Structure formats: structure tokens, C-alpha cells
């Protein structure tokens, strides 16, 4: 090797070939401690010192003479430039000095411990302190932490400085102990090192105090007295001391306000003197302790902006983390950090990458906007090192990317897989954060989720409320309802319910609701008491989440809902549209809506609502007692943005207005037009739309043709989401409007036979009723058998209306045997029911009478009505109230017979023909579709040649009832029928008006009336009063059952 020398430092140019070991060693050591020695004269080889050695004919490098160990031969040679140094070393004969220089010549912790163990008895205070100090500074110190020789050296140094050490020696030993994380509980002399430090604390220089405090950051020793002493001397501290003490306080999470304020004041003045590491440590400390200090962070930001290129990756990451933690990461600093990190991101360590990502994710919207270019590079760097990362770093990266919604599925999967591969290190918090990341980006990886769930269950007892709420939230967000896992989480949440902060309680409530895991114990009296303690501080979002969760869990606790109602009313204007809709939905679902509905109505009217919020609010106010006025107001908003709604929204809105019976014809027409433009509709939407239009009596043939086509597609595709309830509701809706789509009804009938076991009582009744209304006899054969059998099974669960609809349907469908079988099962339970539903009793009784002559118990039900009619016919006052509005075919005939009212068959044929000509086709019998036919010829008594009034035959409709002008004194029953818009009232009013015009005191003759459907009780009362008004006239009355035929003809 050819060597040149310049100013005592090595400069070498390697020749071709392998590098010799001495040169390799020299390159690893600082040049400043090595000097070149000249070649030995003559044949005498150059002597070898502690390091290196000279070969003949070559120059060698040795330690400077001032660092040479004073052992061995003293016949060394050196360059003339260093002759005086060598002479000084040779003359230094003090044993402790020679030992200290030997210690200083050793670099490795193993070498130092070997020397201390071998020469331990020769070491004085300075030697022991030096040896321990150099071990603490050695690069391989972590390899000897458990070496018993280290413990022996520490004990020796501690005992020595306690007995005879200077404050500087005490500080150096304590610093070394802290750096080595060694125990400092006691010294071998019986007096603890820390006790000695405490006793002599006033003697320490500020730098020594800072070193001691720094070392105690790794222990639990009290720092109060030392911090107080440091604060008194803080004006003498250099920047490193300030950052060391701040770091120590943060490491111990010891937020001593006076100390931190004093550090801040001094640091702000000395900011330009800090190095990069000092600044990073300073802001890291304040951020860790959650100390808000605007001036300090502003000063550090100014320094960083001046030379951000000087900040290495580790310090840059710590700087960003601290500013983000303190909510100060914004403005020019944010942009500068992003730009610098973009250049050097590949050089960041694993923790640096994680901290940097976390900082931008936690830095708010401004940080998120600046993060996109950086995160693309950061993701690539992280993926390359994922397997080498600690679990915490992987978790932080996943959280940060998910928080900014920048996590691609593959990236998140890779991080989670790397974390799961270290499942032994995964804690409950790690699992919850990873699951939260998957939930935040709505990405499900079933394999990884299953593994994380298994690990989370293993350490579930260690979970805190935040972990539990995050895990439940993730499962709810991803609709990942692993029964055993979610149940375990719910049970643990119940056990720790009293530890949950309000925010976590609200999130947990929402998640349990979405997962359909009802846990009412979570919301008992103790929880309510805690909520009351937070009165006025819950916030709109927490209130909305809590309420929605309770609603989904079907919790019906009046106390908690009353509290939520009061809180919500006080901050109603703070709710977003979505939160407002969530709260109202919850109260509507919980059937606890009166007070909230009233207080929120004004706020709803003031808002500009999005389509989905409008749909939810309409659904909510349909449940409120005073919701109709709000629905009327919302209907115009719905109309204004009808083109933006999706099918589900339109179905919910239609359902809401139909439920409250609010018919805005313009809005419903717009909804129908919008529905026809949409593509595929969900089965539930089809069902709700059909029901809503049918309930409101809105016949839109184009819409129902469109809906029927979709229903046919669903049936033919064998879709599993077509439920029994949907089949019955759709069938009922088409029948309610008398709209027959033969193909659809046959498909629904066929589908119903495959799901008989899923039909409830109302479903069976709706199907039979709809088939009867639409006269689906071709499809009713075997279908009726199955439905009748199912109805018999469900009799114990049925109400009066369901049983009567089944019986009536079987009667109209002419299924006498099935009807008889059903009546044998249902008659007894029916008679035990409450008699408040008169219409149901009338239907059931008439169906029973159609197949059984003996129905005396059912006939007794009509006796009060018959008594009332007889009193009217006899001219007596009628004060008894009845609950029956219509007697039906059989019992109307009996009532008329008892009143002495009948009709000739020839007259019946004439009336039927006239009504068929007027109506042209059969219609579902409603008030508007039922027609009456009247004919009369009256003259004054005894003067048959003088005609008083005459009607040769006329068809009357319900429309005429409201326009006919009768006499001034109209009988009560006639007036009641006229107000009800009944067609027969129009005929009687016309007759009475003619009688009044002829001014005859008493008349005789005949009056003939016909009704195309069974008469109501009001109609029978009208006939009784007509008998009283015209006692000398022959009254004839005939009627048909519109359900069975069309004015005497088949339907």
C-alpha cells in the first residue's frame, strides 16, 4: 500500500488486490485519534502499540501517544513530530492515570467489561466511572445488558461515587445507568445512588442535572425535587439540556406545568442555538404531554422552514408527528415537510414511515390534501419493508391510509397480512385498529378478518371500550356478522358498560343495531345516569348514533328516550340533515315520537334536504301523531327533486303518505313517472309502491303494468328475496284497485304454494281476498286447498279481520267444502274474540250462513241492529248504538224480510239491466262504483187520476248524492246517507224533492229502489224512514252482491 501523509491524517490510495485487515480496521475508527508513524530505521521493526502494527518496509498507524496505554515496552518509535508526546507518556507513572488511558483505548463493551473484571481491584473512582461511562457509549452495549460483569461494574461505580465521588461523577454514573437501563436501586455501600443524588442536588451543574433527569426517564423514581432544582438553574441551561429534560418529562408522562412553561420560555429565546435533534425532541415532548404552546411551536416551525433540508428522515418524521399531535401541522410547514419527505421517503426507517403517515392523516383536511403525492411513494416504500416492521408501525400505516381513504385493497391486505403473521404480538388495540381500517375503506378480506377476529377473541379481556367499539363498528360497517365473534364482543361490552365514554357508547349502540344484536342491558338505569351527567355535552353526532342504535335494537326504554328527546330538542339546529333524519327515524321506530316530532317539525321545514334525507323524514313523520302537516310541507320538496330519487326512496315516500292517508296527487303522479324510468327495483320497493298506490286508491295503469312486469321477472328468476309477505301485499294491492294482470297473479299464486309455511295469518287472508276480488277461479283450485289448510293451522294467531277475510274469500271463490272445514276450526275462536270489528263479524257470519243453516250464535250478533231498524220502522226514536256498518247478503235479506220490504223479480231484472248499461263493466264495489236505480209513481190519496210525482226509471250514483237538492226537512237517516255519498240517498232525495213540489198532504202509490251491492245499515235505516214518511206507499227494494256478480250477470 502506498501511503501519503497530510496534517497527520490518513489518505490512502488502494492498490489492486484485497484490502489488508489493518487498513479495514482503521477506516472504522475516527481519523482524529490516529496518526501516521514513520518507518523503523535499519532492520529493527516498528514496534506495535495497542492497535495496529508495522510490517517491515511499511508504514503503520497507531493511536496518538497521548492515548497510548502505558504498558509493555517503552522502546516505541514514532514520527519526529510526536516525539514530545511520546516522551510525556513515558514519564507519566501514576497508576490510576495509566489505567484510565488503557480504559480509554478500549472501544467495545465486551473489551471494557473484560478489563474491568480482570483489573477491578485496581480501579479507583475515576477509573470505575470512566469504564462504566464508556460501556454506556459503546456501540455494542445492548449485547451486554444481561452480563453479570456489567452489574458488578455498575455496583462498583455506584458505591465509589456515593462514598467519594464529585457531582460530575455522580451524574456520569447515573447517566450511564439510564443509558444501559440498569437498576439503580442501591449501591454496594448501602446508600443508594439516587439518594446521594437527591442529597447533593444543589451541587450539580445544569448540564449534569439534565443528564440525570434524562436517565431517570427510564425509571419510576420521583423527579419533583430534581425538576425544581433544574427550574431554578434553567437560565444557565444550554439547548441540549432543555430538550433532554423536556424529553424526560414526556417519557415519564409527567406534565409539570411550571417546568414545561420555564422550558418553553427559555427554548423560544434560544431556538436558533438548537440542533435539529434538539428541536425535534422538544416539540415531541410537548406534543406527547398534550401541552398547547403556540409560541414554542411557531418558533420551531420558523427554524425548520429556514433549513428543512437539514432535517434527516428520523427527525423530520418526529417533527411532523409532534406538530400533528398538537394540531399545529398546517400552513407553510406542512407543505415544506411534504416536499422534503417526498424527496427522501425511501430513506425513512420503518417507524419514520409510520409516524409520517400518521401525521398527515391526523393533520386535518389541509394535511390530507397535501398527502396524496407523498402517500403514493410512501406506500411503495412501506410495502418493501412490511415484513420487517413492528406491528405498531403496520397498524399506524393502515390507520393513516384508511383515514385518508388512500388505502388500495392490495396495500391494506399486505399490511394486515404482515401484522397477522406476527399474531403473537397482536394486542386487542392492534386488532381493533386494523379492523377499523378495513371498515373505513369498506373493504372485506374474509381470511384476514377471520384471523384478526380469532386473535381479538384471545385477548378480548384486555380490550378497552375504544377497542370494543372500533371492532363492533368495523363489523357493522362491513356487514361482517361473524356470530361467535360479534356475540363475544357484545358480551364483553356489557361487562364493561360502565367504563364506556359517551362517544364509544354511541358508536357501540349504532354497531349493535346494525348487527341486529340487541343488548338492552347496556342501556339500563346506570347508563342513563351517566348520560344525564353529560347533559348538554353529548353532541349531535353522538345523540344521532345512540338514538339510531337504540332504534335498530328495538329498545323501548321510556327513560332513555325521554332524555334523548330533551337533549335533541336543545341542539336541534346543530344536527346535520342526515343526523336529524337518524334521530327522527329512531324515535319513530321506538314508537316514542310525539314530543320529538313536534319540536323538530319547524327545523325540518327550514332545511334544504337531500333526497335520501327527505325519504327518511317522510317515513318518520308518517309515524308521528302530528306528522300530517309536515308531510304536506315535505311533499312539495319531494316534488321539486323527484328526478333525483332512487327506487327505495320513492317507495318509502309513497308508503309514508299512504300510511297517513295524505294524497298529493301531483306528487304521486311525479313519483309514478320517475319509477317508470328506473331500472331494476328491489322486491321490497315493488311491494311498498304497490301497497301505497292501492291504499290511496290511485289507479295508474301504466305504473302498475310496469310494476307487474318487474314482479313477473322476479318470479321467473326464482329470486330468493321474494318473501311471502311481498307476495300477499302485491296481490292485495292489484285486487284493491281491481287491476288484473293474469300472468303476474298466476305466478304469484304458484309462488305462494311453495312458501305456505312462511305465510302468516294476514298473508293467507290477503291472498284469498285478492283471488276472490279478481275472480281467479282458474288458478284457485289446488291453491285454495293449500291456503285453506294453512289458514286452519294459523287460526289461534288470527284476528277477526283475518278469519273473516279467509271465510269470505272461500265463499266468493265457491269453495264450499274448504269453507266448511275452515269454519269448523275457526268458529269457536272467532266467537271468543272482541266484537268491536263489526265489518269482520258481518263477513264471517254471512260466509257461515252460506254453508250452514245453523249459525244462531253469529246471528245473535245482528240482533241489536235489527231492533234498531224495527224501532225506526215503527216510528220510534233510535238511540241505541251499534258497531255494524253492513249486514252482508244473507242478513240484509233477513232484515228486509222482517221489515216487510221485498221486490218483484221482473223489477230486479229491469234495474239490473239499467245499471249494467250505465257502468258497462264490473268494478270493485266502492262508494264511487256502487249504483242505485229508482222508479216511482205517486199520487194524492184517493185521487189516482192526479199524478203527483213520477220517475219512470233512473240510475243514480254517489256523485248525485252531494248535488241533489232535497226538501228543507230531510229525515235524519236520509241526510246521513247523503253525507256519506251513497247512491241510494241520491234517489230518495230526488223523490222527496218532487213530493215537496207537489204539495200533497198525503200520497199513495209505489216506490221501487235497486242497489247493485249489499246495502249498508245506513241504507236500511233510510228505507225505514222512507216507510215512515210514505206509510201508504208500497216500497220495494232489491240488491245484489257486487263481489259475486255484475248486477246479476257473471263478473
UniProtKB/TrEMBL annotation:
RNA-editing substrate-binding complex 6 protein domain span: 278-519, 683-776
One example of a Gene Ontology biological process annotation: chloroplast rRNA processing
Pfam families: RESC6
Any Gene Ontology CC annotation: ribonucleoprotein granule
GO molecular function, one term: RNA binding
Coiled coil: none
Record-given protein name: RNA-editing substrate-binding complex 6 protein domain-containing protein
Amino acid at each position: 500500500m502506498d501511503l501519503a501523509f497530510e496534517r497527520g491524517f490518513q489518505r490512502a490510495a488502494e492498490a489492486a488486490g484485497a484490502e489488508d485487515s489493518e487498513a479495514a480496521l482503521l477506516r472504522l475508527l475516527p481519523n482524529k485519534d490516529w496518526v501516521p508513524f514513520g518507518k523503523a530505521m535499519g532492520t529493527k521493526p516498528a514496534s506495535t502499540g495497542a492497535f495496529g502494527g508495522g510490517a517491515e518496509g511499511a508504514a503503520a498507524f497507531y493511536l496518538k501517544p497521548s492515548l497510548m496505554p502505558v504498558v509493555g515496552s517503552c522502546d516505541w518509535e514514532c514520527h519526529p513530530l510526536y516525539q514530545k508526546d511520546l516522551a510525556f507518556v513515558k514519564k507519566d507513572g501514576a497508576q490510576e492515570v495509566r489505567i484510565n488511558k488503557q480504559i480509554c483505548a478500549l472501544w467495545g463493551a465486551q473489551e471494557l467489561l473484560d478489563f474491568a473484571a480482570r483489573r477491578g481491584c485496581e480501579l479507583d473512582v475515576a477509573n470505575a466511572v470512566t469504564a462504566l461511562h464508556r460501556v454506556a457509549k459503546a456501540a455494542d452495549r445492548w449485547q451486554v445488558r444481561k452480563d453479570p460483569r456489567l452489574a458488578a461494574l455498575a455496583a462498583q461505580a455506584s458505591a465509589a461515587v456515593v462514598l467519594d465521588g464529585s457531582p460530575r461523577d455522580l451524574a456520569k454514573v447515573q447517566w450511564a445507568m439510564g443509558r444501559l437501563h440498569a437498576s439503580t436501586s442501591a449501591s454496594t455501600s448501602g446508600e443508594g445512588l439516587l439518594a446521594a443524588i437527591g442529597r447533593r442536588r444543589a451541587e450539580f451543574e445544569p448540564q449534569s442535572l439534565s443528564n440525570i433527569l434524562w436517565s431517570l426517564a427510564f425509571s419510576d423514581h420521583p423527579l419533583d425535587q430534581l425538576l425544581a432544582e433544574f427550574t431554578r438553574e434553567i437560565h444557565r441551561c444550554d439547548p441540549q439540556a432543555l430538550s433532554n429534560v423536556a424529553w424526560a418529562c414526556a417519557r415519564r408522562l409527567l406534565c409539570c406545568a411550571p417546568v414545561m412553561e420555564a422550558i418553553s420560555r427559555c427554548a423560544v429565546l434560544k431556538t436558533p442555538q438548537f440542533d435539529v435533534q434538539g428541536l425535534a425532541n422538544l416539540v415531541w415532548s410537548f406534543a406527547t404531554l398534550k401541552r398547547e404552546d403556540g409560541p414554542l411551536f411557531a418558533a420551531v416551525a420558523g427554524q425548520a422552514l429556514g433549513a428543512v433540508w437539514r432535517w434527516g428522515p428520523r427527525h423530520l418524521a418526529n417533527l411532523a408527528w409532534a406538530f400533528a399531535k398538537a394540531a399545529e401541522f398546517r400552513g407553510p410547514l406542512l407543505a415544506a415537510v411534504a416536499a422534503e419527505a417526498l424527496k427522501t421517503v425511501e430513506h425513512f426507517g420503518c417507524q419514520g414511515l409510520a409516524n409520517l403517515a400518521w401525521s398527515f392523516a391526523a393533520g386535518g383536511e389541509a394535511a390530507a390534501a397535501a398527502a396524496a403525492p407523498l402517500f403514493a411513494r410512501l406506500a411503495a416504500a412501506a410495502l418493501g419493508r412490511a415484513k420487517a416492521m413492528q406491528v405498531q408501525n403496520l397498524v399506524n400505516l393502515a390507520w393513516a391510509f384508511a383515514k385518508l381513504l388512500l388505502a388500495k385493497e392490495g396495500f391494506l391486505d399486505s399490511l394486515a397480512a404482515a401484522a397477522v403473521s406476527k399474531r403473537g404480538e397482536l394486542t386487542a388495540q392492534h386488532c381493533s385498529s386494523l379492523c377499523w381500517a378495513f371498515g373505513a375503506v369498506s373493504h372485506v378480506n374474509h381470511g384476514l378478518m377471520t384471523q384478526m377476529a380469532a386473535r381479538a377473541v384471545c385477548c378480548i379481556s384486555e380490550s378497552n371500550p375504544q377497542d370494543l367499539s372500533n371492532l363492533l363498528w368495523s363489523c357493522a360497517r362491513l356487514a361482517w356478522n361473524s356470530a361467535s365473534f360479534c356475540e363475544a364482543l357484545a358480551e364483553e361490552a356489557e361487562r364493561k358498560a360502565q367504563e364506556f365514554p359517551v362517544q364509544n357508547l354511541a358508536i357501540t349502540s349504532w354497531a349493535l343495531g346494525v348487527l341486529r344484536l340487541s343488548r338492552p342491558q347496556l342501556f339500563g338505569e346506570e347508563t342513563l345516569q351517566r348520560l344525564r351527567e353529560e347533559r348538554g355535552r353529548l353532541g349531535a353526532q353522538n345523540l344521532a348514533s345512540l338514538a339510531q342504535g337504540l332504534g335498530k335494537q328495538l329498545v323501548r326504554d321510556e327513560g332513555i328516550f325521554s332524555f334523548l328527546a330533551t337533549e335533541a330538542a336543545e341542539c336541534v339546529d346543530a344536527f346535520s340533515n342526515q343526523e336529524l333524519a337518524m334521530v327522527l327515524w329512531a324515535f319513530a321506530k321506538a314508537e316514542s315520537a310525539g314530543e320529538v316530532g313536534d319540536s323538530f317539525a319547524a327545523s325540518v321545514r327550514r332545511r334544504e334536504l337531500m333526497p335520501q334525507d327527505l325519504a327518511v323524514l317522510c317515513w318518520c313523520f308518517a309515524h308521528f301523531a302530528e306528522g300530517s302537516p309536515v308531510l304536506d310541507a315535505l311533499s312539495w320538496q319531494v316534488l321539486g327533486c323527484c328526478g333525483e330519487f332512487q327506487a327505495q326512496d320513492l317507495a318509502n315516500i309513497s308508503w309514508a303518505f299512504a300510511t297517513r292517508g295524505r294524497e298529493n296527487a301531483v306528487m304521486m303522479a311525479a313519483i309514478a313517472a320517475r319509477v317508470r324510468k328506473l331500472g331494476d327495483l328491489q322486491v321490497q320497493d315493488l311491494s311498498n309502491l304497490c301497497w301505497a298506490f292501492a291504499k290511496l286508491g290511485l289507479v295508474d295503469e301504466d305504473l302498475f303494468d310496469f310494476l307487474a312486469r318487474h314482479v313477473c321477472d322476479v318470479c321467473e328468476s326464482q329470486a330468493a328475496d321474494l318473501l311471502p309477505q311481498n307476495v300477499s301485499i302485491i296481490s292485495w294491492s292489484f285486487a284493491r284497485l281491481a287491476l288484473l294482470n293474469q300472468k303476474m297473479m298466476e305466478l304469484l299464486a304458484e309462488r305462494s304454494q311453495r312458501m305456505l309455511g312462511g305465510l302468516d295469518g294476514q298473508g293467507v287472508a290477503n291472498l284469498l281476498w285478492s283471488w276472490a276480488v279478481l275472480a281467479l277461479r282458474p288458478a284457485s283450485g289446488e291453491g285454495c286447498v293449500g291456503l285453506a289448510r294453512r289458514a286452519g293451522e294459523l287460526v289461534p294467531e288470527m284476528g277477526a279481520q283475518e278469519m273473516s277475510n279467509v271465510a269470505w274469500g272461500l265463499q266468493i271463490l265457491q269453495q264450499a267444502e274448504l269453507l266448511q272445514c275452515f269454519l269448523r276450526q275457526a268458529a269457536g275462536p272467532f266467537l271468543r274474540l272482541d266484537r268491536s270489528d263489526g265489518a269482520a263479524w258481518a263477513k264471517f257470519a254471512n260466509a257461515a250462513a252460506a254453508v250452514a243453516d245453523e249459525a244462531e250464535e253469529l246471528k245473535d250478533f245482528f240482533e241489536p241492529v235489527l231492533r234498531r231498524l224495527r224501532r225506526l220502522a215503527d216510528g220510534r226514536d233510535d238511540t241505541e248504538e251499534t258497531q255494524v256498518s253492513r249486514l252482508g247478503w244473507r242478513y240484509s235479506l233477513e232484515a228486509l224480510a222482517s221489515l216487510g220490504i221485498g221486490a218483484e223479480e221482473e223489477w230486479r231484472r229491469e234495474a239490473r239491466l239499467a245499471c249494467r248499461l250505465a257502468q258497462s263493466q264490473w268494478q270493485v264495489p266502492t262508494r264511487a262504483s256502487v249504483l242505485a236505480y229508482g222508479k216511482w209513481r205517486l199520487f194524492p190519496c184517493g185521487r189516482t187520476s192526479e199524478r203527483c210525482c213520477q220517475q219512470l226509471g233512473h240510475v243514480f250514483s254517489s256523485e248525485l248524492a252531494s248535488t241533489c237538492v232535497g226538501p228543507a226537512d230531510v229525515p235524519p237517516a236520509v241526510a246521513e246517507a247523503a253525507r256519506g255519498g251513497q247512491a241510494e240517498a241520491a234517489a230518495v232525495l230526488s223523490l222527496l224533492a218532487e213530493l215537496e213540489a207537489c204539495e200533497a198532504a198525503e200520497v199513495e202509490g209505489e216506490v221501487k229502489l235497486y242497489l247493485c251491492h249489499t246495502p249498508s245499515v245506513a241504507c236500511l235505516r233510510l228505507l225505514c224512514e222512507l216507510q215512515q214518511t210514505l206509510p201508504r206507499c208500497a216500497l220495494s227494494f232489491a240488491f245484489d252482491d257486487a263481489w259475486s256478480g255484475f248486477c246479476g250477470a257473471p263478473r
